Amino acid sequence: MDSDHPGVTGxxxxxxxxxxxxxxxxxxxLLGLDCGEPGVFSGEWIDRIIGLENVTVELVMVxxxxxxxxxxxxxxxxxxxxxxxxxxxANRPGLRHVAFKVDDVRxxxxxVREAGWETVGEIxxxxxxxxxxxxxxxxxxxxxxxERLDGAAG
Length: 154
Hints:
Number of strands: 9
Order of helices and strands: EHEEHEEEHEEE
Shape: globular
Number of helices: 3
Largest sheet: 5 strands, mixed
Distance between the termini: 27 Å
Structural class: alpha+beta
């Protein structure tokens, strides 16, 4: 990167705003992610960053097994976001899904179903390279599970 034109140097995290923090954290932990303890934050600094007044949020940092930050899962205590629309379809523009490598798609999907959630579609073998499946987390974000198959390059 040209030092005269600074830009992105790495990934930090994705912010996921939810209504039910506990249920979302339960779902992410079920997938095998490390969910930290919730913290509550407020003050002028956060009001100024996000352009709202009298903000109070509760958040949990969620990390991958390798320790890297992945999600900042946030529930707004104030101001309230109001009623939510149904979860958008997979082809709707915007941030629609995140993908994680897993060691056993069928096992993770079984745990997800036993916990009361469903898949968006079905488990698919993509060209003998990956087993792929979409599951929807409690607030509507689609989570793609990807298991690299034996013999696949890389």
